[in-house]
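Quick one - inputs below.
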Amino acid sequence: MDLGISGKRALVCASSKGLGRGCAEALAAAGVDLVLNARGSDALEQTAAAIREAHGVDVQTVACDVTTPDGQAQVIEAAGAADILVTNAGGPPPGMWSDWDREDFIKALDANMLTPIAFMKALLPGMMERGWGRVVNITSQSVRSPIAVLGLSNAARTGLTGYVAGTARQVAPNGVTINNLLPGIHATDRADALDSGVAKSEGISIDEARDRRAATIPARRYGTAEEFGAACAFLCSQHAGFIVGQNILLDGGATNLTV
Ligand code: NAP
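Output:
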């Protein structure tokens, strides 16, 4: 399917690896020029080079922490008149509800709620003026069904979800859509880190921890960054203009819901 977005320009935050990279690859395959970002420059430059070679699109890189005001300013400047925005950042650490203090919440809110909001506030006006835009926020299945040990993530991401629900309806008249993609477990470094934690605390191997988790998913496997990216690229396509303010689960059926 031709996604109809060849020649458009996208900012994909936190995209040297994992789900962000999956989104960047799928957009590049559709002919979209990219601004990529991550804190570490080695993996970022390798990813950028691989995407340029595979897809022949223009790829700029900005190595910085997107959760800081300085990092946001650098990335926003590089994004220029971006038509597509994919927000992403690392997730907060797991823990226990009774241990988190104010600073832990502020950090999580900064990374997973206020950072995507800052990017939307910066890029939405230009998209609205030009009459076309696409925003996809990478959130989590935890906004539909809480993951107790990820309480910081549950809190920050549901806050973002509430903001998007109203804002998406305000920008839709100008041809701009905002939607959230909710990953369940996907085979990335983040999943490895979570599985390592389980392996350590339960005295089992990481393979066993992974197999146990996969067995709880109706699809009986982890998702891939490639299939996540394909869903993102579709939401950014010309065909998705009537999909507004939605929260789309990509979790192999793991979240047990009727609607
Ligand atoms: P990942 O494989 O660890 O990749 C994270 C990417 O983001 C890397 O490129 C990393 O590069 C970059 N990054 C992290 N923090 C950053 C920051 N502050 N500023 C700029 N770049 C940053 O993670 P992932 O699995 O793709 O997860 C992406 C998001 O989805 C996370 O918020 C995660 O919590 C959420 N999520 C993931 C899953 C899953 O199963 N994978 C499930 C639910 C939710 P640098 O380290 O070099 O900065």
